[in-house]
Amino acid sequence: MKMMTFFIVGLVVHVVFFLSIFDIYFTSPLVHGMTPQRVPLAPPAKRLVLFVADGLRADSLFKLDDNGTVRTPYLRSVIEESGTWGVSHTRVPTESRPGHVALIAGFYEDVSAVAKGWKENPVEFDSVFNESRHTWCWGSPDILPMFAKGATGDHVYTHTYPPERVDFASTDASRLDTWVFDEVKNFFSGAKSNETLLNMLHEGQNVFFLHLLGIDTNGHAHRPMSKEYLENIGLVDAGVAEIVTMMDDFYAHDGKTAYVFTSDHGMTNWGSHGAGHPSETLTPLVAWGAGVQTAQRESSHKYDDNYLKEWGLESSRRVDVNQADIATLMSSLIGVPFPLNSVGVLPLNYLNNSQHFKAESIYANTIQILEQFRVKMAQKKETTISFLFTPYQPLTDSKQMDFVRNARNLIQKGQFDEAIHYCEDLIVQAMEGLSYYHTYDRVFLGSSVVLGFIGWTSYVVLFILKTHASLRKPPTNMHMVTERSLGQMFLCIGLLVALFLLVQSSPWTYYIYCLLPVPVWFSVIREFETLAGLVRAIPSLPLSKCFGYFLLVTLGIELLVVSFFYRAMLTLGLFVLALWPVVSGLYTKAKFRSLSWILSCLFLAVFPLLPVVGREPNLNYIICAGVLTLFNSSSYLWSSWRRSPLNRRDRQLFICQMMQVVLCAYTLTSTHSSLQLKQGLPLFNQLVSWLTLVSSFLIPLLSSTRLFHRLLSIQMSLVCVYLLLSTGYEALFPPLLSWLMFAWVNIEQEAMNTQGSSNRTELSSIDFAENIDITKIRQLRLDDIRRSYFFVFFIINAFFGCGNIASINSFDPASVYCFLTVFNPFIMGGLLMWKVLIPFVIVMCTFESIQVSTQLSSRSLFLVVLVISDLMALHFFFLIQDYGSWLDIGTSISHYVIVMSMTIFLMLLSIMTHTLTSKRILIGRNQKMHFR
Known about the structure:
Number of helices: 37
Strand content: 5-15%
Oligomer: single chain
């Protein structure tokens, strides 16, 4: 296989392995074809008002102020006198879209659906709004449209403010909530003179939804403990009181209005959300009005989290729910069918009604969940060969009929308490059955992917041996006959697998995951002569050295895998790397460069020990980072000047880049100062930030093609962007990483000199634009395994040094305030992603420079890197499959995604970094190399 073909095939294979994890573990839970279930008895309420205070933590609402006063007097009076309250437990990801879907539709949206659209509905789902007669919504343009577009008919009406109002630099974000309250009051005031609207408002099964975004915006901008956040909560409390009074007056105090106040997610102390910290997953729930149980006194509590004492609510009964349960509560109160895909369980303790009504309600809830189970079971039965199908034993067809018949009989006999307990048990069984069929194919698909992954990794190892160890012999006639027979055998295997999937009516993605191992393993087995050649060559190999490298690489890969779970392992790894010049003897021959390597490793080792979340902004670090960047660049330019003077163009370019570092540091401090004074984002600062981002891709191409000059220009451009995206100590990470990268280039050159390379070239004379003499390209050595491992280790450090993709909470929205303050999740997410990739690109450019300076083919060394990263990914996939794993499977999935993303980025970004570092064509295409 040609090298370019190999890279294309490898990219396709890795994309398949990457996407497989979403098909196996993040498939949509939605099924269709169920019958709506409604309670046959009259509902207690004609209308429902839903208040959602976006980003409101439970403790922020319930806890008293430091002076012992209540910050929400109205809702506190509801809790103590006229309503029922508790904590609503949300699920990860704690973001606005999945939170509102759980609240209003009653199910937990899968990750793939969230990624397909924010305001749109990538999948059709039922909701309380859809089942209502009419729903009027006021609030954010990022939330309301998805429920209007997901509803059947034209009975969901939305009123949103312009997106520009969601501005983190706003003088007062609480005006978003004031807008909602004012619009609702104007709406009802205008309805009095509109007879058509008035008649609609007096119909039953109406819903009014008030989405209040001000608290979330103030929390992001000022933190949840800030004056702005807490005062916004008081404003919302007063607004809720006004709306309740207005509604009661409008409907002449008919007592038919139910109210629900809750939140979609909480917020951490440092102003972010998305992960599973209790401050994010614990949200308030207060319900009152028609059909809701009034406040109950309770002396003994079943909750041992000490929140009741902390909140001063020891004497009030607390009723906790899961977030999806709120959808069933709202449906029951106004008498609409439960959302078809809801997995919520009706919280009966919130209802103030007869036991008969509660029994009928929980029975309808049970049938609604059981309907999903039946559809899921039927779908899986249709796509599985009958003798291979294994049904969920606790709920076979006969047992389902018995369960339903017994529950109905208990209700008809008036044994309502027994019927309620019976239905609750049946719901538990149905939920377990839903999970059983939802994950039915996981083992089968996971095994196929593992088989393909092992085959691919084996093939890459054989490809390296075949290309660089001269183990391949000219094909003989016997070899061609054997290969033809082997191809026919694997073709038959592929046809049998395809036929098996066709009989089972499997999705098209199953064909990819199950058929991919067939050509991969064919490619492995057809290289049996390479394996035979390796066996014959074993006696002539330096076995002790090979075994030593194998042991070190194995331990090194384990260290990298463990570092994904415990960042401090990276500190240990950097300490070990710092000793490398001493152990290898380089220290005695190049003391200054070795000392630079040791110090940079030790300084960088501090970062994995620092917290990635919860840090307060500190602009002094940004100033220090700018000074350090200027010092580094001045030092390297001075040392370069002593060896060979810079030409005028290069001097001007580097002076401009150094001035740009100063300008970026000033822009950041100026922006945050302006925001603190609530003067907004200055236009000049915004222009400087965006121009810096764009120019960071162009300026390095204008620099000299000399190795250190090009590398320094790249690093300075990237550090400028990183400074603008920083809020604290993380700004120091790229300058220190750059220091280590320069030390790495220098010390690798010394290592080449120690090995007695006859083709060694002085670093100061290397020019990327020069034509490379193919005859000077050296042979691949065992020491290149160490270089490849160093590269992977530094890449992991670049990811986890001061923030990572796996932890949503490691990102602070304040990081993008130099670029924009108006909420835009995709632009903000893109900027934060580029912030993560900047250290990654610095390491990649350095690795490209090392390949040139050590006179080794780019593709040759990358193959070794590919093996190391694939072994890590394979390790995580085994952990995901839970083959005796003691680690959390969700964490393993996120880490697998990171490693696969890293590998794909290595393939794609290598082109970009190659363009940045040189204009030359990749070398090593035709030459032969041998292991020494």
